[in-house]
Amino acid sequence: MDAPSPATFDEMLAPDGTVREAYRQYHHWLSQQDSAGMRRKNFEAESFFRRTGITFNVYGQDDAEERLIPFDMVPRIITAAEWRKLSRGIEQRVRALNAFMHDLYHRQDIIRSGRLPERLFRNNPAWLPQMVGLRPPGDIYTHITGIDLVRTGSDEFLVLEDNARTPSGVSYMLENRETMMAMFPELFTKVKVQPVSNYPRRLAASLSACAPDCAAANPTVAVLTPGIYNSAYFEHAFLADQMGAELVEGSDLRVIGGRVQMRTTQGYKPIDVLYRRVDDEFLDPLTFNPDSVLGVPGIMDVYRAGRITIANAPGTGVADDKAIYSFMPEIVEFYTGEKPLLNNVQTWRCADPDSLKYVLENLAELVVKEVHGSGGYGMLIGPAASRKELTAFRAKVLARPDKYIAQPTLALSTCPIFTRNGLAPRHVDLRPFVLLSPGGVEITPGGLTRVALKKGSLVVNSSQGGGTKDSWVLDE
């Protein structure tokens, strides 16, 4: 079960120092730039982000103030051929995830077939019995999905995790591109890059295509936010503005005449599609958490009646579970009849006795994650852990092995970042954003590249000191 770690793949430079195809035009341009001028540009980018208000909150810390998202101005570049191959695998996976959601809340054929253990969702807090038998408009559950990818070789991208509940970060993808185009307009005349700026328009069209039958010819779309103190409020407001949609809070909405309606200066107006950025638990106090003040009392009754679309559908968080993730190869094959085009990272389920034994014996070499964890929290990176941390985590895993999975410590690919001393390689991942509607699948070319700014770090999450960079997919 143990495999040797491959050498780190540098996405810009080959081992002999030559520049890889994806970066040739950019590298040629960069070699002609003045280093002092580039440092000024780097300062301008930081100032731009501060003025725009591109920040996030870190919860659970004494200094949980808003923080600037670190931005690196060296783009991450992918060739058109690489992207075509990736896109096929991403589309296959997203279609399988949506089919899995439908099956899990209806016949549960994958359980009956023995491919997936029933225990994985029966005791899963993300699985909602209230969704059983409910068919959302258009049979779409995962309207917006973020598939986290890591690269480990010249031709190997692996799926690190799936984000089907409320994938975030698309506003940073868009602002990163806008910042780059503002700072280096001449660069985009030399290197032909596929655009991402049409994402909000495509998102609005995709959501509108999922509107219920009772919707008017031009469906009303709204973004439901928990409010200004939420860590991703910037993104909620940004997307609502860019889509031309209303930004609403739970207090702006009520159920009137069997429809969810929002308060306007002309009275209450029905909403057809609600892009919610509120967790399931707080969505409807009459159905879920009775103490919630963030959601809309009665919205689930309207949803059951087929008179509003909620994106993403309640209960899709099951797909974010890392124990479910470990079964994704079986899930893809079950619903598509095809072998997965994108492979998972090798994963050991600690709930399995043989896997648990292996994990405990090799804890210092593995990455161990909570099945419901996110944001880089609740995980152990064995090679970077102290003996005390290993001992403490071993006790946690032994106490509740079903709560953990383990993976090898991957040699994530590196991309260059700009530092005071010039370019330096840092580890990266990639989150493409995928839209699903009855009309098909749309994948934004590139997505959000997250980068571990600390030398040697493998943790790219912004909450853990990571940053972002613009992702380029080259035109044909």
Helical residues, percent = 25-40%
- Strand segment count: 23
Structural class: alpha+beta
Q: How large is the share of residues in beta strands?
A: 15-25%
- Major sheet: arrangement of strands: 3-23-22-19-18
Low-confidence runs: 1-6, 58-64
Mean pLDDT: 91
Q: Span from first to last CA?
A: 41 Å
This entry's quaternary arrangement is single chain
Q: What is the architecture of the domain at 346-409 at the second tier of CATH? A: 2-Layer Sandwich
Over all CA atoms, what is the radius of gyration?
23 Å
The tally of helices reads: 14
Please report the first level of CATH classification, the CATH class of the domain at 346-409: Alpha Beta
CATH fold-level label of the domain at 346-409? Dna Ligase, domain 1
Biggest β-sheet strands, sense, barrel: 5 strands, mixed
Rough outline = globular
What key phrases describe this protein's structure?
alpha+beta; 476 residues; Dna Ligase, domain 1; 14 helices; five-stranded mixed β-sheet
Q: Care to describe what's here?
A:
The chain is α+β, with helices and mostly antiparallel strands. It has a domain at 346-409: Dna Ligase, domain 1. The chain contains 14 helices and 23 strands. It has helices at residues 24-31, 35-52, 80-104, 109-112, 119-122, 170-183, 187-190, 199-209, 233-243, 299-304, 322-325, 328-336, 353-361, 387-399; strands at 55-57, 66-68, 71-78, 144-153, 156-163, 221-224, 246-248, 253-256, 259-264, 267-270, 273-276, 309-311, 343-344, 348-349, 366-370, 379-381, 404-408, 414-419, 422-431, 433-437, 440-443, 448-451, 467-473. A hairpin with a 2-residue loop joins strand 20 and strand 21. The radius of gyration is 23 Å and the shape is globular.
